[in-house]
Amino acid sequence: MSVEVRDAGAELRPDPSRVVTDLFLPGESSPGSSSRTEQVVARVLGASRAEIDAAAAFLAGDLATRHPGLEPLIRANARKVHPVADDLDDALALVLGATFTAEYAIEGAALCNPSAVVDPDQSGVAEGALRVIVSLRSIGEGHISAISFCTAVIGPDRTWDFDRRERPLTRAAISEGAWTREHLRGSLEHDGQLTEVAHAVLQQLPPVLRATDIDRIIRSLPGEFFSHAESRPRVEAVRLVGRSAYEATFAPDSALSQRVLLPVADEERHGMEDARFVTFTESDGTVEYRATYTAYDGRTIRSRLIVTRDFREFFIHRLTGPPARTKGMAIFPRRIGGRMFALTRRNGETISLASSGDGLAWRAEAPVYTPSGLWEVVQSGNCGSPIETDRGWLVLTHGVGPMRRYCIGAILLDLDDPTVVLGRLEEPLLVPDAPQREGYVPNVVYTCGGIVHDGVLWIPYGIGDNRVRVASVGLPELLDAMRPLP
Question: I need a labelling partner for 142 at 20 to 30 A (CA). Which of 121, 271, 369, 400 fits?
Fold first, then answer.
């Protein structure tokens, strides 16, 4: 049975004018080079008055309109590289700070892999319509990924309209995340860092703690912990794990589409990829938004967690256990039998199930689905969190076949026992045929989560790891097309 898939005619393309500013240290961006900070500071301080005044005028004029509130950030960068920057006159301090500031286009390379959830704010939406929040993977210089957002309105008929994305972009204020002592212990063990140094620190920590508590305990350790060469990296490893949890808070007056989550923790410094957001309802009725994303440090990957209730305050934390060592986790929207569940990818090719009591420490449960069609012969994985229907858990999947061609398919899992596959589509829903073949990475269609509204499944998806379009399919029609596994 074939399924009719409609294109919504809506598209998002990468916008290189969506930029943020960041600290720039000459030399550190080139492998093998050393910092040239002192030399550059000396050159700026030795520049002529006329040069300084001209540069300051440019900064105050042209760039101030592009980055409202830029001056405090630039002055902060000046203080980072010059200890007496506050003693400089205004123009010189501004030029010095700007010399160590750079713009970064968050989607200068590509925009892709969206997920969608219901917006908690439905004010002003027409009857029969629904406003949704869409998370996006924004890829910039150096193939570094960040997480950005926009909104869209579905309906009231079978339409999808992206709202205008506001500028300028705004960065979050970053603060220390909270740990429980047991979660910290589990994270150190997960990294193979549960050493004697770690035990010495853990024994003195309170049940709930932050990175400053870890630093305080480390400072109180006996000198023997620092006198041996092998101990020093172990001390730093404890510090690094403690700093990996953080909170990101945006200004209340910022629009959702102005907010961007950029890498903060060491383990995500090369990218925050493919966030799969889901509206999660706890057993007591509490509702929050959870997302897993792939953190990349340049060598290894791991799955990490984002929790928010309003998309303004984000709590970002580590996950532990074997499932956290893979990419592409997708959390179920509620507990089953008192436990949280998530879909993962075992052995790089099989959709598997993981469970957790607290949403932080995960254990592997069982394989769920192994590739069976030629279009998914290389591997299969989820394409977002399961969607609850009256017939079962609907899971969008991706399959990789010949020519590394990524397609989107679907399977249906039992509501009470999600290891049981009730049915699957024998052929993919979406394929990267012309004109959806070309892009940053050719032959790829991929989504991180669809949404159902008025009996229609909406699938925002990335094309060629480059741009985003939207497709829709009738939910009853899709479920009727499912066939039992052979």
Answer: 400
Q: In percent, how much of the chain has pLDDT > 90?
A: 81
CA distance 295 to 262: 11
CATH 2.115.10.20 residue ranges in the chain?
A: 6-15+108-170+256-480
Average pLDDT of the residues in 77-102? 90
Fold classification of 6-15+108-170+256-480 (topology level): Tachylectin-2; Chain A (2.115.10)
- Global pTM? 0.94
Q: By C-alpha distance, which of 189, 219, 183 is closest to 201?
A: 219
Residues sharing a CB contact under 8 Å with residue 418, sequence separation 6 or more, in sequence order: 332, 336, 341, 353, 368, 386, 393
CB contact at 8 A, 459 and 387: no
Tokens of 74: 């630039």
Q: What angle is formed at CA 426 by the lines to CA 423 and CA 429, rounded to 5 degrees?
A: 100
Rounded to an integer, what distance in angstroms lies between the CA atom of residue 109 and that of residue 145? 10
Residue partners of 70: CB distance under 8 A and separation at least 6: 21, 59, 63, 64
Q: What is the mean pLDDT of residues 159-174?
A: 95
At 404-450, the pLDDT tens digits run 999 999 999 999 999 999 999 999 999 998 888 888 899 999 999 99
- Kindly give, in sequence order, each residue whose CB lies less than 8 Å from that of residue 322, ignoring residues fewer than 6 positions away: 354, 362, 363, 364
Residue 27 pLDDT class (50, 70, 90 cuts): low
* DSSP result, 120-175: S--TTPPTT-EEEEEEEEEE-GGG-EEEEEEEEEE-SSS-EEEPPPPSS-BPPEEE
Distance CA 19, CA 30 (A): 22
Residue 114 CA: distances (Å) to CA of 40, 251, 262, 274, 281: 41, 24, 16, 7, 21
Question: Do 410 and 5 form a contact (C-beta atoms < 8 A)?
Answer: no
